[in-house]
Design goal:
Elements: E1 7-8, H1 9-16, E2 32-33, E3 49-50, E4 52-54, E5 60-62, H2 66-72, E6 78-80, H3 89-96, E7 104-106, H4 119-122, E8 130-132, H5 140-149, E9 155-157, E10 178-180, H6 189-198, E11 204-206, H7 219-225, E12 231-233, H8 243-248, E13 257-259, H9 271-282, E14 288-289, E15 292-293, H10 296-310, H11 320-329, E16 345-352, E17 355-362, H12 367-378, E18 385-390, E19 399-400, E20 418-423
Parallel strand pairs: 1-5, 4-6, 6-7, 7-8, 8-9, 9-10, 10-11, 11-12, 12-13, 13-14, 16-20
Antiparallel strand pairs: 2-3, 14-15, 16-17, 18-19, 18-20
Helix pairs in contact: 9-10, 10-11
């Protein structure tokens, strides 16, 4: 059912967290709090509010009574207002300015691009450390205004905002550690470098599901742009087509974690080849790849795999890393190819009276099926035929093959073994 339009933050708050809908609960970690209300408030002692408020998809369009917000939300630290109908930054400011301890704010999927965020409104966000603006279509001008007024902002989410370019802020945001900017349309690396200029302290950059093309930047420049980058996510960067782009990631001096799945460059390799070639050749210093820890043992296995992978390539096609690893490990012998599949057939000697005939028999057949196969060779009917199997290494003599439904492979028959056929005594 569609939510009714024109509902205020305070109205929804009262409905959701009334004792009927959100009864008081005791116990560790519940975080339930009943604050004192202004003199004469009709809601005195009615609301049981936790410190984390989730009011998503409630049709909220405005703040409501600011005094009531201040009275009930003094302890609130996290607020989820995603997927509502807030389109005026002034209304958002009225809510946030009355939640003094707010650190996390989610405004995703609100039509806030319909209004301009003024600096005096953005000032009410000053204490926020994590801000989510996914699918809000917030302009870069709005983002810049926020950055200037949030001195302690650590995490910023700007996904699904249809960005094709990045507009540099006039002021660097030194506090930001994580930027989540997936599912946009950022193609040219010149746009990504602007993020490094704006956020010099960035620790984690999540760029998945963009159409990023080749990384056109010198190694020295990359190191200056992202001096503190520890983790980067480039999942489904459709424009990455060459190994040189992966090599460029080694220019980030503190990079430890890389996520690289769904890019064209890696599609032609098997899962094993993809991981080992990335670890050994292109990302020799990382400690986590695609979410999995890279241990010392796996790194050595990958480097040895890399040597063997390229040992038959023409000299002009061998990466420089190959020669580095040859210096480390020396030239390696190719791994022996061992076929671990079970044998499907063997060659045996079939003995009948004074005759001996070498035959190839299938091991997936039963004793009864073998008798049918031998019928024309020994000129006996299957009902008048006894079979004995002699393992060439067995010390106990022939074993009668008395069970018609038993499969031949269960006897452990090998090449060179013998099968004796005798007529059944009447």
């Amino acid at each position: 059912m569609d939510q009714p339009s024109g509902r205020s933050f305070m109205q929804v708050l009262c409905e959701k967290y009334s004792p009927e809908n959100f009864p008081y609960r005791r116990g560790p970690g519940m975080g339930v709090h009943v604050p004192a209300t202004p003199q004469g408030s009709p809601m005195k002692d009615r609301l049981n509010l936790p410190s984390v408020l989730v009011l998503n998809s409630c049709g909220i369009t405005c703040a409501g009574d600011e005094n009531e917000i201040a009275a009930f939300c003094a302890h609130v630290s996290e607020l989820d207002l995603s997927d509502n109908k807030l389109e005026d930054w002034h209304e958002v400011s009225k809510i946030v300015s009355n939640v003094p301890h707010l650190e996390f704010l989610n405004l995703s999927s609100n039509p806030l691009s319909l209004s301009v965020l003024e600096r005096r409104c953005a000032g009410s966000f000053a204490g926020v450390r994590k801000l989510v603006l996914n699918n809000s279509k917030a302009s870069w001008e709005t983002v810049h205004t926020i950055l200037q007024e949030l001195p302690d902002l650590e995490e910023l989410f700007l996904c699904l905002n249809d960005y094709e370019t990045v507009s540099c802020s006039p002021v660097c945001c030194q506090s930001l550690k994580l930027l989540h900017i997936t599912d946009n349309n950022l193609q040219d690396w010149t746009e990504i470098r602007k993020l490094g200029i704006m956020f010099p302290s960035l620790d984690t950059l999540i760029l998945a599901n963009n159409n990023l093309t080749t990384i056109q930047e010198s190694e020295d420049s990359l190191a200056r742009l992202f001096p503190n980058l520890r983790s980067i996510n480039l999942h489904k960067s459709a424009g990455l087509h060459c190994w040189e782009d992966i090599d460029k990631l080694n220019s980030f001096p503190k990079l430890e974690e890389v996520k690289l799945l769904g890019i064209p460059l890696l599609q032609s390799y098997t899962t094993e080849e993809r991981r080992k070639l990335l670890i050994a050749s292109r990302l020799p210093s990382i400690i986590k790849l695609n979410g999995s820890i890279v241990g010392d043992g796996e790194r050595e296995d990958s480097e040895r795999f890399f040597i063997r992978y390229y040992m038959e390539f023409p000299e002009e096609e061998v990466p420089f890393r190959y020669h580095e690893l040859i210096t480390k490990y020396g030239k390696l012998e190719p791994l022996a190819v061992v076929d671990l599949r079970p044998q499907s057939s063997v060659k045996v000697e079939v003995h009948f009276q004074d005759k001996v005939e070498e035959m190839s028999i299938r091991l997936d057949q039963t004793v009864a099926e073998l008798k049918k196969h031998l019928k024309t060779v020994v000129q006996l009917s299957t009902s008048n035929m006894l079979l004995f199997y002699l393992d060439q290494e067995a010390p106990f003599g022939p074993e009668e093959m008395k069970y018609s439904s038993r499969a031949l492979h269960s006897y452990g028959i090998r090449d060179g073994d013998k099968i004796y056929v005798e007529p059944r005594m009447k």
